[in-house]
């Protein structure tokens, strides 16, 4: 009876839905990848032996490669999303423009990242891989920049709407006010995630000097936000 209660518990069903999604598995692996990056840095800085650091370095590398393999072909999804956003004539022009830019940035990031799969996995090394990875980081940064612009624009407009509803004091606007607050919270979470993520390509490109500790924690934070968001979507 106890076993049946556990097996058929709603949380177990929710978990199965979550891990059945590629996004869910990717976010979990990403969390472990970046947390391992932070731990490897921390252990190195605290003069721990190499035998203690190596498992986390290996975890970071292995999960990074696994995620790259899982993303093969995903650029098509982003290209389609860019086309859909471009055709959404009823959408706010600024949001439509930033949506297209974001999806194209992510699409080219995925495409260039896919092109380096053989080199990253050491199946076949080729000299152009470092340059392609650098361009992939530029494309990722471009996508994140458009995402940040979209988030800031949305936050500004939603904040104005929330203020207007609050000042109006109309009881009939209570439902709309709650909806706006919910949208505001979603935008805040996405902005935080983008700010954390932007540390990764800017560091890889050498535009900012951040150590693996900061990048690891930033990546872990954005990954956990992604896990939480995907968990809610599969509820």
Automatic annotation (TrEMBL):
Chief place of localization: membrane
Record Pfam families: PEX11
UniProt keywords, alphabetically: Membrane, Peroxisome, Peroxisome biogenesis
Keyword Lipid metabolism (UniProt): no
Subcellular locations according to the entry: Peroxisome membrane
InterPro entries listed in its UniProt record: PEX11 (IPR008733)
Keyword field contains Membrane: yes
Domain of life: Eukaryota
Residues making up the signal peptide according to the UniProt record: none
Protein's name according to its UniProt entry: Peroxisomal biogenesis factor 11
Species name: Ophiobolus disseminans
């Amino acid at each position: 009876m106890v076993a049946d209660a556990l097996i058929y518990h709603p949380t177990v069903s929710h978990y199965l839905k979550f891990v059945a999604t590629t996004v869910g598995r990717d976010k979990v692996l990403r969390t472990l990848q970046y947390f391992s990056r932070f731990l490897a840095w921390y252990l190195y800085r605290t003069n721990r032996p190499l035998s203690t650091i190596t498992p986390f370095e290996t975890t970071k590398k292995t999960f990074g490669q696994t995620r790259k393999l899982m993303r093969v072909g995903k650029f098509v999804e982003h290209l389609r999303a860019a086309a859909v956003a471009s055709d959404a004539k009823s959408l706010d022009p600024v949001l439509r423009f930033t949506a297209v830019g974001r999806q194209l940035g992510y699409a080219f990031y995925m495409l260039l990242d896919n092109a380096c799969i053989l080199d990253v996995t050491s199946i076949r090394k080729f000299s152009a891989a470092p340059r392609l990875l650098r361009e992939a980081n530029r494309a990722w940064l471009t996508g994140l920049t458009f995402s940040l612009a979209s988030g800031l624009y949305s936050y500004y407009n939603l904040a104005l709407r929330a203020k207007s509803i609050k000042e109006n004091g109309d009881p009939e606007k209570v439902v709309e006010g709650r909806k706006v607050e919910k949208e505001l919270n979603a935008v805040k979470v996405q902005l935080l995630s983008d700010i954390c993520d932007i540390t990764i390509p800017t560091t890889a490109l050498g535009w900012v000097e951040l150590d693996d500790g900061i990048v690891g924690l930033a990546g872990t934070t954005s990954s956990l936000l992604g896990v939480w968001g995907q968990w809610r979507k599969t509820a």
